[in-house]
Design brief:
Pathway: Glycolipid biosynthesis; glycosylphosphatidylinositol-anchor biosynthesis. This protein has 146 residues and is mostly helical. The chain is built from five helices and no strands.
Length: 146
């Protein structure tokens, strides 16, 4: 990787860390009685939304040049819908993994699913922004020889 790419990657990761800190601090200013431990469901939602918004904005600002074929409205809509489906599938997969690691299946479904959404936001959303819904690119990047 070139120095410029490493710098952009470092800046993006620092902005994600800053959004997590802001997600823990800013709701306490605007919401009465907010604490990360006391209202953890609200915090999970706020943190997921902050990180997802930041990732999408960074992708829109730092996006690579696309060919004219890929700029069509139909292509963008189909790509967006595929990305939404992949994100939802990753949420379901993380939820299943969390339950297999010992989270209660029935008693804390909301907490477990929101935690799965947070994990998907940190992992899958960044990959979807960079790689898109291209399965071959995902296999190439995450395979042993990629």
């Amino acid at each position: 990787m070139r120095e410029a790419e490493l710098g952009r990657l470092l800046a993006a990761n620092l902005l994600c860390a800053l959004s997590i800190v802001l997600a823990a601090v800013l709701p306490a200013v605007f919401l009465d009685g907010f604490s990360v431990l006391g209202t953890h469901l609200t915090w999970l939602c706020v943190c997921s939304v902050c990180v997802a918004t930041l990732n999408i904005i960074l992708h829109l600002v730092l996006k690579p040049n696309q060919s004219p074929k890929r700029r069509s409205f139909a292509y963008k809509i189909s790509r967006f819908l595929k990305c939404c489906i992949y994100f939802f599938m990753s949420c379901i997969l993380f939820h299943a993994i969390i339950v297999l690691y010992g989270a209660p299946l029935i008693e804390s479904v909301t907490e477990t699913f929101l935690f799965a959404v947070l994990l998907s936001t940190f992992t899958t959303l960044q990959c979807l922004c960079l790689l898109g819904p291209n399965i071959q690119a995902w296999i190439r990047v995450f395979s042993k020889n990629g």
